[in-house]
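User: For my dataset I need records formatted as: sequence, then structure tokens, nothing else. Please produce one.
Assistant:
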Amino acid sequence: MKGLQIWGAPLLSAVILLVFLAIWHAATRQETGAQVVDAEYAKLVGSEAATGKKSAFPTPAEVGRKIWGHVIDPFYDKGPNDKGIGIQLAYSIARVLTGFLLAALVAIPLGFLIGMSPLVYRAFDPFIQVLKPISPLAWMPLALFTLQDSGVSAIFVIFICSIWPMLINTAFGVASVRREWLNVAKTLEVGPMRKAFRVILPAAAPTIMTGMRISIGIAWLVIVAAEMLVGGTGIGYFVWNEWNNLSIANIISGILAIGLVGMILDLSLARLTKLVTFPE
């Protein structure tokens, strides 16, 4: 029973993956009904796929070979439109982390101020409610016009999408600190700064980290779409460029890389959340 509890979930996950791969392989097996098609299309996808002798969608083995090629040489650079997936991911991660950290520098102090003062909360609330629902990508044209740099514009979009979950969660966490703890600090005549760092921050830290975890997930989603729009570099541009090349195997490789990096970012923030969460 104990072994089943330990290995049950991994084994079930492996079975689900094998079933998925088997269905995928069956769906991309050789087809019948060959036909003559455009020569340019045949050059892109291959003559067999173009004439219907096989599926144009890659098999699991073909995708596996592409992924292995990316793994053994992720940082090659053969020009503006042909860079390794490792370089593209590095650009995207750098933009996400820059925008995310800038948002944290603004959102956490402002969230503290909003959470500690009902007056400030009521003053900022209309602006938050109006700006929060706006899609981050709606800011991209304005950012490109004013900043005149696609990379900086992408960072600005990450900043915009990251700030709201952190701001709201920080304000909520600060406002939810137990009154008893604040009363004790007041009784002991603890100064404002000492109270903020020794009483309020430890109590609100789990909620703040939850907001940061939500923000990093949204930021990673948005950067892919932003890079598809502005082009140049990044994993979003990589996926879009491979679509223009009709390289479905590379598109799938990029999608898997996006998911893997997103999982690592989420797990990292989840781990930090556990470190600042104290048992009741």
